[in-house]
Design goal:
Elements lengths: L1 H22 L2 H20 L2 H4 L5
Helix pairs in contact: 1-2
Length: about 55
């Protein structure tokens, strides 16, 4: 369940970034893309912040 919530959170960040870019808010979209990239990087490395206490 927690992995599902983590994945949904990441998807919402990227959806917000794409929506911001489409609507013309380039700075907000760029920041959200950066945050999403960091979140995916932390998830792939199994960082405890993004694993919510789940072990790999």
């Amino acid at each position: 369940m927690l992995r599902f919530l983590r994945n949904v959170l990441i998807e919402f960040v990227f959806a917000g970034a794409l929506t911001s870019l489409v609507l013309g808010y380039v700075a907000v979209g760029a920041v959200l893309l950066l945050v999403g990239g960091v979140m995916i990087s932390l998830t792939q490395r199994g960082h405890k912040l993004m694993s919510f206490g789940l072990s790999r």
